[in-house]
Amino acid sequence: MFIQVEDSSRRVHVQVARQIARKILSGEIEPLQRLPCEMDLCEMFGVSRTALRESTKLLSAKGLIESRPKVGTTVRARANWHFLDPQLLDWIQGLENTEVFLSKFLGLRKAIEPEACALAASYATIEQRKQMSVLMQNMIKAAEEFDYEQWTINDHLFHQTIYLSTDNQFYIPFGNILTTIFKLFIDHSAEGGRFCINEHKGIYDSIMSGDADQARSYCQELLRDDNQRFSEVPTA
C-alpha cells in the first residue's frame, strides 16, 4: 500500500505524511475509511512510531484524518480538508487533471484578486510601489525576450506584492498560496508567448495613479478565461 521512505534531506515524517495525503487526495483511500494500525504503518514505511505519530499530527492539522482511542485513525470527510494550506496544495499537484485544477485556482483568483488590486491602488506604500515598478520593468523585458523563466519569477512576485499592498492581513495568506502553485499556473497561461502584458501594465499604471476602479477592471480583464488559456476547460 505504501513504500518505505528514504533517509534524505526531507524529514522522514513529512515523507510519510505526503504519501498518505496523496492517496487520500487521489481517492485511493476514501473518506471515512480507516487507515492500517500504527504497527502496520510503521512496518510499511520502515519508520519509528515517533516519526509516524509526527506524520499523523501533520495530517490531522490539515483536516485529512482524525485519530480516536480504541477506534483508530480515519480519513475525514472532504469538507474538512484545508485546501488553502500551501503544503496540501503542493501535495495535490499532479493528482488531478492539471487544467481542471488550475481552472479552479483561476476561479479563486477571480473572486479575490480584482479587489486586492483595488486595495493596492489605495494603500500601497512608496516602497511597495517601487518594488512593483522594478518587477513591471523586468516583466516587460522578459516578455520582449520570450524569457519564460524570468517572466514566471517576476509575474509571481508582482502579484504577491499586490496582495501584500492591500493593507489587509487577511489577503496575505493568498500571497502564500500563489507561491505554492503560481509558477505552474503562469507556465500554463504564458505558453506560446501569451503574457497579457497590456493587462498587467494596466493594473500597474492604475495602482501607481491610485485609481482603484481601473485597477479592479484591468485585473478582471487579465483573469478572463481566454486570457488564461482556460476557454475549453469544463466547469464541472
UniProtKB/TrEMBL annotation:
Keywords of the record: DNA-binding, Transcription, Transcription regulation
Domain HTH gntR-type: start-end pairs: 10-78
PROSITE patterns xref list: HTH_GNTR
Gene3D superfamilies hit by this protein: GntR ligand-binding domain-like, Winged helix-like DNA-binding domain superfamily/Winged helix DNA-binding domain
Keyword RNA-binding in annotation: no
Name of the molecule in the record: FadR family transcriptional regulator
Annotated InterPro entries: GntR_C, TF_FadR/GntR_C, Tscrpt_reg_HTH_GntR, WH-like_DNA-bd_sf, WH_DNA-bd_sf
Keyword DNA damage assigned: no
SUPFAM superfamilies: GntR ligand-binding domain-like (SSF48008), Winged helix' DNA-binding domain (SSF46785)
